[in-house]
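All the exercises in this workshop are built on plain-text protein records. Instead of coordinates, the fold is spelled out as a row of discrete tokens. Once this layout is familiar, the rest of the handout is easier to follow. The record below serves as our worked example for the rest of this section.
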Amino acid sequence: MTLEEFNKSADLYSDNLYRFVLKNLRDEDLARDTVQEAYEKLWIKHQDIDFGKSKPYLFACAYHSLIDVVRKKRNCFLTCDEAAVNIPQKHFSQFSGITEALNEALNQLSAEQKSVILLRDYEGYSYEEISQITGMTLASVKVYIFRGRVAMKKRLELLGLTVNDLED
């Protein structure tokens, strides 16, 4: 990868990468540091990485970094069922909109579930690409996405929302 291609990858992918990390960490400074570390790792290996593979490489670096950060903050993750039981009870009327309710449900997920759902539903990666980014097996990616979506659905139902509310 040339310097021009590296700069182009920064122009093309830094905003998406930052949003992905920020959604997971919910800390702007930590998100900026994580994105910067991902680009630093890309630069260190720029001669070995083709420009076409820079985006998955950046997301993989950021994903692994944010998982490390989350694990440092929390020693254990909630399972899907524990998350549905241990969440504070609120009603949808306490939120200003569906987006806020969705973010609340998303933030109740484990780091792995949240990351794969963000990569799939927000960033548009395929299951195979998510598997490569996260280092999980394809089956694990599908299971985490399925269980995460089920947990989010349960959470939204507790808030008084249905799937029909989200489609409107």
